[in-house]
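User: Sequence in, structure out. Go.
Assistant: Echoing your sequence, followed by the structure tokens.
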Amino acid sequence: MHKIVLFILLSGVLSTSSWAENIIRPGLWEVTTKSDLLALVPHIPSEQMQQLTNLARQYGLEIPQIRNGAATSNVCITPEMAKQEVPTYLYENQSGCTVTNASRTGNRYQMELMCDNSQFKGNGYAEGMFITPESFSGRTEFDSVVRGAPLYAKADTQGRWIGERCEVVKPLP
């Protein structure tokens, strides 16, 4: 369950972070991800939440504040990242996941996700749309087995550009 919660957090932040030249504006973005699974976070024992936090740090991420089933974080998109047509490297090997069939048409994108590691296995997809160069929306769905138990998860993501400078926030790797 912990890895799938981390996957949802990563999906929300990463799946919509940068898609095409002249579609997304580089700089500081506020990204909010909503999910029924995120609503369960307050019920995770503190020891297990610390393990999840440590796992996220291994990927260079900080777990954002989670309230009412939504996680909000700030993400720095560099000019180089904003120029990437389809940055599948953001998903490659994240929690054992690989990207297949990634495509972009105009301001819309979609990709399939396949994950296989000791904690969970499953398939899913991410899709989204840049509404303007300063806002986007997306969703991720994932059907998995976590420690032998089937689990279906979905998350909706909204992002808005805050400003050009993002010195306080580390860029995504």
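User: And one key feature?
Assistant: The chain is about 15% helix and 45% strand.
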